[in-house]
Amino acid sequence: MQKTILSTADVARLFDVTETTVKRWADEGELKCQKTPGGHRKFLVRNVVEFAERNHFEPLATLALPGTDRMAGAIQLAVLERDYAKLVEAFVDRALSPDRHDLAIFLVYLYEHKIAPWEIYDLIVRPGMQMIGEKWMGGEIDIAQEHRASHETLESLSRLQTEVYVKPPVGKSVLCACLDSEMHEMGLRTAYYIFEAEGWHTVYLGSRTPFPSLLRSVSETRPDVVCLSATGPENYRELEAKLRQLRETVDAYGGKVILGGRLAKDLSFDRSLVDALLSSARELLDFIGGATRNGGRSAVNTPGPGA
User: Fold this and answer.
1) I want to staple 277 with a disulfide (CB 3.0 to 4.6 A). Which of 47, 83, 98, 264 is the partner?
2) Which sequence spans correspond to the domains of the chain?
3) Pairing of strands 173-179, 201-209
């Protein structure tokens, strides 16, 4: 696996500085580090990224990709140039490869080079999964390959999240769920990870959550935000009736309801039932910023292409 603890030389290479400079950052407490019994400084990826963001540093070079990756040179160049089209190609290649670890290595590598999680979700994973879906519909791959790619992507996003810098708690909570028979949870999972990284207490119910169970969980936990994902059920009126009931429960204590998924672009859906319709991780970050500043209130209500 790609190493996720960086050496002094690794950090110096990333920012094109001397190892002496990196050691000084560490010794002055600017960049958190761990020391081995032999006195060598080691740096967690999340701490390096947090340090770079705090000081507005951008990577000026790339670390070596592990093993004998045939796309290593192209990936390194694409990372430096922020060539997302090429990175989408690399994502698809890894999601469909027999190696169940190479995708996680790739996503962590992107984060090491300060490509933010929302960029990974919106600009690489989502278009990559759309490309895989098109390959299946076009007969280039079969359904087993498509399912395996989806499962490996979920696993890899989970692996990435262990490396992401998590902000201090902000004193707010969110409950995330896919309602009733909804099985597509990748968008919901990324929303959950973003809330977690922003310092929110998170409750994740996942796919196919029966509405009575969702309502009971909301009543018990009283989250500031209920985050739902829906690709579009056959019976919109039934969904709207459930959302009205959820709305009453949430309004009783001053919470909010947000909805993502392909339903966000359906003009027949009653948008007054939710506080925000979100189509991307970037929009979710904007909502979270407003909710954190304004006690849970946000004016974001931006429908667009479904996530």
Assistant:
1) 264
2) 5-55, 72-161, 173-293
3) parallel
Return the residue matching tokens 């990372």. Answer: 79
pLDDT digits over 200-257, tens only?
999 999 999 999 999 999 999 999 999 998 876 556 778 888 999 999 999 999 999 9
Model confidence pTM above 0.70: yes
Mean pLDDT of the chain: 88
Any bridge partners for residue 201, and if so which? 173
Answer with the residue of higher pLDDT: 177 or 1: 177
What CATH fold (topology level) applies to the domain 5-55?
Answer: Multidrug-efflux Transporter Regulator; Chain: A; Domain 2 (1.10.1660)
What CATH number should be reported for the domain whose range is 173-293?
Answer: 3.40.50.280
Of all residues in the chain, the percent with pLDDT exceeding 70 is: 90
CATH architecture of 72-161: Orthogonal Bundle (1.10)
